[in-house]
Amino acid sequence: MIDRPVPLQRIKDTFRVNPIAALLGPRQCGKTTLARAFTATTEPCSFFDLEDPVDVQKLSAPMTVLQELTGLVVLDEVQRKPELFELLRVLVDRPEVDVKFLILGSASPALVKGVSESLAGRVGFVDLGGFSLGEVGVDQQKVLWTRGGFPRSFLASDDSASYSWRMSFVRTFLERDIPQLGISIPAETLRRFWTMVAHYHGQVWKAAEFGRSLSFSEPTARRYLDILAGAFMVRILAPWHENLKKRQVKAPKIYLRDSGLLHALLRLEDWDEALGHPKLGASWEGFAIEHILAELATSDAYFWATHGGAELDLMLTIGGRRHGFEFMFSDAPGRTRSMGIAARDLGLHHLWVVYPGSESYQLDDRLTVVPLQRIHEAIAASGS
Questions:
Q1: What is the pTM of this model?
Q2: pLDDT tens-place string over residues 161-219
Q3: Residue % of the chain over a pLDDT of 90
Q4: Does residue 361 contact residue 349 with C-beta atoms inside 8 Å?
Q5: Helix axes 31-39, 5-15, angle to 10 degrees
């Protein structure tokens, strides 16, 4: 088993200030394994899997059962019983309560109605994706990028087995997981939409093009996109715009959050096939963005672009300063005119060019080329 100390610590930190911690992420990303690792050092502990008929039966009278428990209570796949959220609010508001709840979910609060409203002020959120580069080791970067971070995909015996698992995951997600959220969309329709998103990975969202290609309305296309985003399959990266006297792009960019699923939907089975595909650069961009956002534990992220051609792949505010990121699949990236425009117009403290190499080097005092695995320490060393 691969240790995951960072999300474990985030759960601990969340419980220091909240009686409820919500561990959220896509199905099969390792939430249950992480929760059991957390509970291994916690006494007393009660664990309920809401996909297990036995546990569901135990909770047929949830107030009667849960109000008697102390210590830590884990509720896995909690989105299957959203009526529990209001009950949890009542339980943790009792005077001198001696219980904490770790709830695990495969859908965002936006999809599971009532989470944020019912538990406001009582719950802290911990996002979990697949394995990170820091967890698997720098020497496994190519494998992680190719197969993605889902544990069973990454740990498969070979590329073929990994690819087969990912294709099965896509089918199960469409045919079982989406209907369990109460969403009625034909599996094949959503598959075609998801595949089209894969071909638009790293591009600006154009609802009209999706609607024309798949023969449905722009609002329907946006609804499908929101569903995939709410299930942690797609990242919608918001545009940044301010008064610069320039026409700026105001539509979001879209990415598949897991590079392995991107490659599966593009029918790229191994590294050699990915290496020769036109989406290779966009695949690297999405892979690196997910790594950086996970490392910095932030979702307050933007891209920036003008209709004149200047753009910035990612902008984050770190320590009160703006940092920009460009992602290049190149052996030795250099400066571009667009980088200079973005640094000047956005007032960037530093601009980082992230590439798959192993050496860092300066292009000027505010522009550094840095390997993905060193980005966290490079930002820390910059004085942010």
A1: 0.93
A2: 999 999 999 999 999 989 887 788 999 999 999 999 999 999 999 999 998 988 889 99
A3: 72
A4: no
A5: 60
- What does the pLDDT read at residue 300? 85
- Looking up tokens 């969340």 gives 14
- Every domain of the chain and the residues it spans: 5-127, 138-381
What would the two tokens of residue 200 be?
Answer: 């638009």
CATH code, residues 5-127: 3.40.50.300
**DSSP string spanning 226-239?**
HHHHHTTSEEEEEE
Taking each helix axis from N to C end, the angle separating 207-214 and 187-199, rounded to the nearest 10 degrees, works out to: 130
Could you tell me the CA-to-CA distances from 116 to 26, 89, 223 in Å, in that order? 18, 11, 20
Starting at the earlier edge strand, list the strands of the sheet with 123-127: 45-49, 71-76, 99-105, 20-24, 123-127
Map residue 369 onto helix, strand or coil.
Answer: strand
What's the longest Cα–Cα distance across the chain? 65
Q: Cα(first)–Cα(last) distance of the chain, in Å?
A: 34
pLDDT, mean over the chain? 91
